[in-house]
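Sample log: diguanylate cyclase.
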Amino acid sequence: MNALRHVLSELVVERVGFGIFVLDRELNVVMWNRFMQDHSGRTAEQVIGKPIFANFPELPRVWLTRKVESVFQLGSFAFSSWEQRPYLFRFDHDRPITGGVDFMQQDCTFMPLTHEREVMAVCITISDVTHASMMQRGRDEAVAKLQEYADRDGLTGIANRRYFELRLADEFSRWQRHGGELSLLLFDLDYFKRINDEFGHLVGDTVLRVMAERVSQTVREQDVFGRFGGEEFALLLPCTGFADAMLLAEKVREAICATPIDVQGARVPVTASFGAAQARRDITSSYEALINETDAALYSAKRQGRNRSVGFA
């Protein structure tokens, strides 16, 4: 009966659909099952009795040594997910090359093999989780894409008001904690209703898209550009003082009005009015107050004749 159990045990170890190998305290290979042989291209005879790194120098030496040593010292199981480390061995996988992974994705379990309460060796299992990882990545990418769509204005592709105000609230909190400078610009297109009335809403939509492209190419990478609604837009300017905010407002205004927009055989002139305000510790109590100050400056620009930039005073 013992002989039968031994034979059955060896069969199971050799036939299971995951890798099994055993390392001693010096990281010499003690056992190497069929899965490991088939995927590594090295037989048990080639690896048993030799340090694991002799045949696989590409393994993460420091990480694997620490992992195995911790099992010897603590006598407890350890685990590594593909999400923490995509793979231990660079095994080929049988999934489509469009899956976006170069090697088999692996979960690894480290199990102490004990005798009379002493850890004699560590058994490591390698599970092929390539399919599951690809499915998870696909779900994560889909969620990220949905989130991106939720944060973007459908017409212009820039940040929508909800996302813009979230970023503004975050930057305002950072400014309150750490100081520095923070400015905000609000602007809208002058007499935009006339464009819709004269040329139609499709032309108006094109004007908004082209304008958004011009502004996106003008602002800095750290700035946040968003649509507040209709023809009104906003620029969040982290680490930017009032003087620099006014300079940027003029730069953006000139980019918008420099060239008429050609659409459906018509040349549509476009100008914009800008309001600017800077967060100030003695006055600005909330990000909503900063919006109100910037909005007041924008309306002042309109009262002064439009197509200009005005700062809150």
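Observation: Confidence is low (pLDDT under 50) at residues 1-9.
Observation: The radius of gyration is 32 Å.
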